[in-house]
C-alpha cells in the first residue's frame, strides 16, 4: 500500500495560505444513519490493527464524494460563501424530481492507497453526479473532468505510508486479506439516500484524513 496523501495529492503547501487546504465539495454524509456508522465501526476494528499500514477514518469524517470543486471559479476568483449559496440553489433545482433511493454499502477491499468500500447500484448516484455538475457549472464553478463512469465508493481508511520494506509489504498483504473477508456474513448494509451536502472540505495531511464544514443541505425531491 502507498501513502494516501503523497505529494501529488496535496492541495496546499507548508508555507502557503491556509485556504489552499480547503475546497468546496458535494458529499453524501452518513452521520445520521446508525446502521452505516455501525458498519464502518466494524471495519474500523480491522483497520485499527494495522496502524503502520493504514489510518482509520473517524465517524465524523466519513463521507462519499459526489463532486469535488476547484478553489478558483471561471472568473479566476476564489469561490466564496456567496457563490456557494448560489450553487446550492442551482443544485437544489436539479434535484426536485429525484426521489430518495436505496443503496447497498459494501463489501470492503484494499486499493493501492486506501481501504475502499463498494457502493451499489451505481445508476442513482451517477445521475446525482450529473445533476450536481450541471448546477455547479451553471454558477461558474470549475470542476474536474467528468468521469466516463462515475465511481461510487466510500473509504474506511487511508494509506499511512509506502509499504517499501518486506515487513511493510507483508503487513499490507495481511491487511488486504483481512479487510476483504471482514464482517462476514454481514458484508453489506443498506441505506436510503435522501439528501446531499455542499460543504467546505479540508485536507488534513497531519491527521491523514479529510474533515468538512456543512454549509447547505440539498434534499432530493420536493419538500413541504
From TrEMBL:
Source domain of life: Bacteria
SUPFAM superfamilies in the record: LigT-like
Xref: Gene3D superfamilies: Cyclic phosphodiesterase (3.90.1140.10)
Pfam families noted in UniProt: 2_5_RNA_ligase2
Annotated protein name in UniProt: 2'-5' RNA ligase family protein
Naturally occurring in which organism (per UniProt): Streptomyces kaniharaensis
Amino acid at each position: 500500500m502507498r501513502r494516501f496523501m503523497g505529494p501529488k495529492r496535496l492541495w496546499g503547501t507548508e508555507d502557503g495560505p491556509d485556504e489552499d487546504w480547503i475546497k468546496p465539495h458535494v458529499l453524501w454524509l452518513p452521520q445520521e444513519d446508525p446502521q452505516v456508522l455501525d458498519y464502518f465501526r466494524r471495519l474500523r476494528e480491522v483497520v485499527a490493527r494495522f496502524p503502520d499500514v493504514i489510518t482509520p477514518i473517524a465517524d465524523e469524517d466519513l463521507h462519499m464524494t459526489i463532486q469535488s470543486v476547484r478553489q478558483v471559479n471561471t472568473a479566476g476568483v476564489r469561490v466564496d460563501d456567496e457563490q456557494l449559496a448560489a450553487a446550492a440553489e442551482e443544485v437544489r433545482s436539479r434535484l426536485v424530481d429525484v426521489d430518495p433511493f436505496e443503496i447497498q454499502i459494501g463489501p470492503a477491499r484494499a486499493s493501492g492507497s486506501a481501504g475502499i468500500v463498494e457502493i451499489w447500484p451505481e445508476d442513482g448516484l451517477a445521475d446525482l453526479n450529473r445533476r450536481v455538475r450541471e448546477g455547479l457549472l451553471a454558477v461558474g464553478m470549475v470542476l474536474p473532468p467528468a468521469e466516463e463512469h462515475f465511481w461510487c465508493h466510500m473509504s474506511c481508511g487511508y494509506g499511512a505510508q509506502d509499504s517499501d520494506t518486506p515487513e511493510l509489504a507483508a503487513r499490507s498483504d495481511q491487511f488486504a486479506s483481512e479487510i476483504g473477508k471482514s464482517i462476514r456474513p454481514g458484508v453489506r448494509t443498506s441505506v436510503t439516500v435522501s439528501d446531499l451536502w455542499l460543504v467546505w472540505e479540508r485536507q488534513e495531511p497531519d491527521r491523514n484524513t479529510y474533515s468538512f464544514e456543512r454549509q447547505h443541505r440539498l434534499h432530493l425531491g420536493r419538500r413541504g
